[in-house]
Specification:
By secondary structure, this protein is α+β, with helices and mostly antiparallel strands. The chain is built from five helices and eight strands. 38% of the residues are buried.
């Protein structure tokens, strides 16, 4: 749903929190129960520069928790590791939330920062509608619709989206890479949503904090990631001593930023 001035970067040190949260997500996603989502349909298509996604997926998480994760706008970065910055903008009207995200992504050998501003509103129980604001985005148009249907500790997610990029995409091979990227990103986001929702519903154990590892000597540790996944305030976590062990290489924790720039503080 969300991809992306005065553009406000994430608070200082938050990149370290994203990295540690990524480790907890990785551990959860490697759990067979958490990965047991049942994909019924996923179609990604392109016509005249407009990309469309249609998805139906069963998640092993309650619908209420799934919607809670999707509408946790201050922590929307948890759903896509390509998001480098995000913020909530003033609402354009009653019942609407305006969300800005910035992504850094690569298609083939071309890397680009992509901004997206969306107006999001809830459309009845289990429904969400997101409309792209072209004047503030890297897209000429776009919208997305979520339907989350509950079934006890399980839920069915129906997701439909279309987007028209307002930036250059190499013909033929570029479109192929975009469709492949959209498919991978959609599946990865749903797995993350399921993982976080299961933890918040008490169906999945939150990985225990590991104070022996930090990211590049940053003050944040895995305790921060655990609190982020649980939807709790991580500001009170005490710094762990630097152990000199890079989390990326030791645990497979994915970096939240793919390049070292001002918005990717380490």
């Amino acid at each position: 749903m969300f991809c992306p001035s005065t553009w406000t970067p994430l608070s200082a040190g938050l990149t370290g929190q994203l990295a540690t949260a990524g480790t907890c997500l990785l551990l959860c996603l490697l759990n067979p129960l958490a990965r047991a989502a049942d994909l019924a349909e996923l179609q990604v298509s392109e016509s005249e520069g407009v990309y469309r996604i249609n998805l139906i997926m069963q998640l092993q998480a309650p619908a209420q928790q799934v919607q809670r994760v999707l509408t946790d706008y201050p922590r929307i970065y948890r759903l896509n590791p390509s998001i480098t910055d995000s913020e909530i903008l003033p609402s354009p009207g009653p019942g609407m939330v305006r969300v800005r995200t910035r992504m850094l992504d690569c298609i083939a050998f071309i890397c680009k920062e992509i901004d997206r501003v969306e107006d999001v509103r809830e459309s009845g129980p289990g429904g969400l509608l997101a409309t792209t604001v072209p004047a503030l985005s890297s897209f000429k148009s776009g919208n997305a619709e979520w339907q989350i249907l509950g079934n006890g500790e399980h839920s069915q997610v129906i997701y439909q989206a279309k987007m028209e990029p307002d930036f250059y995409i190499p013909p033929l091979i570029g479109r192929h890479f975009v469709k492949k990227k959209l498919r991978q990103a959609t599946l990865a986001s749903l797995e993350r949503i399921e993982c976080i929702a299961r933890i918040q519903a008490g169906l999945e154990q939150n990985p225990a904090p590991d104070r022996s590892r930090v990211v590049d000597g940053a003050t944040e540790n895995h305790a921060v990631g655990a609190l982020l996944l649980a939807g709790r305030d991580p500001s009170g976590v005490a710094p762990a001593p630097a152990a000199g062990i890079p989390v990326d290489g030791d645990t497979g924790c994915a970096r939240p930023c793919v390049r070292n720039n001002a918005s990717c503080r380490r």
